[in-house]
């Protein structure tokens, strides 16, 4: 009987979630015995043609090529999992969504005319149907393994139903905003000011933090 085929793809990302999979070490050997790692360029150069049973997609969609590629992947896989914060929310590169892409390109690159990028960095779910979002930066390697095993067993994966922030509170750690000095809050406001939609300096950035401060005890 043929083994289920698993594919791991990289889009715009740092490769951290793929490295989390490789860091499974002993568990990865067991997984490789149960499935065929048909496409995983971070781990091997050999590629087995699809269709695939499971695709783990790391990274956001930030180029025209990626927008086309994710459509091809979706049509060639049974289950598609968005792996990590880039794939589920756009990632750190989505900060460009709040400014002008061309302005950033001119500041960073000597020849920005060679770039072929979309104006925004968006999660996978904005382009195709995603069967499961697995959050984390990087993802928890054991949660990623549980997702693959659960899909192979045709069951719902056992994943935490709360954010890691709750673990800190349960451990007795105080909420940072409640103990922060005004100077610390102002320094954070200065850091996020360039990305504030209104781009009106520290006052705008600081006021934008207000709802976030009130939403948690």
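-> sequence recovered:
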């Amino acid at each position: 009987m043929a083994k289920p085929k698993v594919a791991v793809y990289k889009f715009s990302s740092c490769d951290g979630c793929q490295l989390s999979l490789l860091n499974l070490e002993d568990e990865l050997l067991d997984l490789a015995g149960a499935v065929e790692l048909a496409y995983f360029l971070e781990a091997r150069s050999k590629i087995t043609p699809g269709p695939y049973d499971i695709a783990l997609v790391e990274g956001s969609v930030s180029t025209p090529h990626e927008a086309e590629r994710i459509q091809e992947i979706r049509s060639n896989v049974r289950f598609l999992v968005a792996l990590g914060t880039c794939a589920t929310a756009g990632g750190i590169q989505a900060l460009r969504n709040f400014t002008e892409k061309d302005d950033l390109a001119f500041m960073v690159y000597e020849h920005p005319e060679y770039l072929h990028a979309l104006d925004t960095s968006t999660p996978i779910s904005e382009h195709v149907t995603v069967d499961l979002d697995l959050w984390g930066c990087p993802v928890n390697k054991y949660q990623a393994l549980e997702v693959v095993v659960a899909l192979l067993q045709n069951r719902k994966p056992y994943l935490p139903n709360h954010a890691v922030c709750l673990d800190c509170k349960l451990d007795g750690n105080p909420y940072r905003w409640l103990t922060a000095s005004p100077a610390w809050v102002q320094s954070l406001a200065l850091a996020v000011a360039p990305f504030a939609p209104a781009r009106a300096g520290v006052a705008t950035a600081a006021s934008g933090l207000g709802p976030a401060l009130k939403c948690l005890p």
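Strands lie at 5-10, 36-40, 52-58, 77-83, 132-134.
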